[in-house]
Amino acid sequence: MLEKLLLVFAWTSFIVTIVWIVAPVFAFADYSLRPTPLAVGTLLLAVGLWLLYRSHADLGTNWSITLEVRQNHTLVTRGIYQTIRHPMYLAFLVFAAGQALVVPNWLVGPAYAVAMTLLIALRIGPEEQMMIEEFGDDYRVYMATTKRLIPRVW
Q: What is the domain range of residue 93?
């Protein structure tokens, strides 16, 4: 149930941006966009999209929107997964930071960042536990040689 609520919250935060674009519902929280946040935010959006692409490409058929181990699921430790265990979550956070900078609205800009931070905070532990249960010592060794989200840091 928590998993479904988190996914609904995440999608809702994404849809809020689309609503902001097409309707003046959140116009009361708009502010002027400056060139530097726009440039930095655009770069972060691009990096986030690239990380998401790379994560999906390296995972292949092992990817799932929900926390589950599928039949013939394998432990992926190649590509971007050589460096960090959760590059897709990092992609969401980088993209969210970019959105917060390029959407000039105090509510809509950071909405996706709030949702992704909550989703990741509540999901990363159970996901790693699921992987330990499925892959045992292989996953523990993988954990010992990689960081969760930030290469060589955390």
A: 2-23+35-62+72-145
